[in-house]
Amino acid sequence: MRHSLISAAFAGALLAGAGAATAHAGTTAQPPAPAGAEACGYWQTSADAWYNHCAKDTRVVINVDVKWASDYTKCVGPGNTYLGSTSSIRGAWYVGRTC
After folding, report:
1. For every one of its 99 residues, what pLDDT tens digit does the chain have, with 9 covering 90 and above?
2. What does the alpha-carbon distance between residue 23 and residue 72 come to, in Å, rounded to a whole number?
3. In degrees rounded to 5, what are phi and psi of residue 35?
4. Does residue 84 share a domain with residue 61?
5. 49 and which of 14, 41, 83, 96 could share a cystine (Cβ 3.0–4.6 Å)?
6. Do residues 89 and 66 lie in contact, with contact meaning Cβ atoms separated by under 8 Å?
7. Vertex 36 angle, CA 23 and 16, to 5°
8. Contact residues for 50 (Cβ-Cβ < 8 A; gap 6+)
């Protein structure tokens, strides 16, 4: 009985993870849209990396994680900011300050 409960819990965790991966994969294939149409923060298409700052009245500093070069910080305003190709950008995140 204990083994079957553990197996069921493990299978449920795998299915939940698969659902999250599927949901993420669906959002990454979308082309750029007006601010607010997709999640706030880093997002990407099959070719392009973007950062969506959802606040309407501030500019913030983000860190951009670059694959084959040094990371850098960037000041972004409201809406989508193009960061570069997904072949060179791994991610971006808010560093906790305005600019």
Report:
1. 434 333 343 344 434 444 433 333 333 444 555 444 568 999 999 999 999 999 999 999 999 999 999 999 999 999 999 999 999 999 999 999 999
2. 29
3. -50, 140
4. yes
5. 83
6. yes
7. 15
8. 32, 42, 43, 44, 80, 81, 82, 83
3-state secondary structure of 42: strand
Q: Residue 77 sits in which domain range?
A: 31-98
Tokens matching residue 15: 């299915």
Number of domains the chain is built from: 2
CATH number, domain of 54, equals 2.60.40
On whether both 12 and 49 belong to a single domain, the answer is no
Considering the entire predicted model, what is its pTM?
0.62
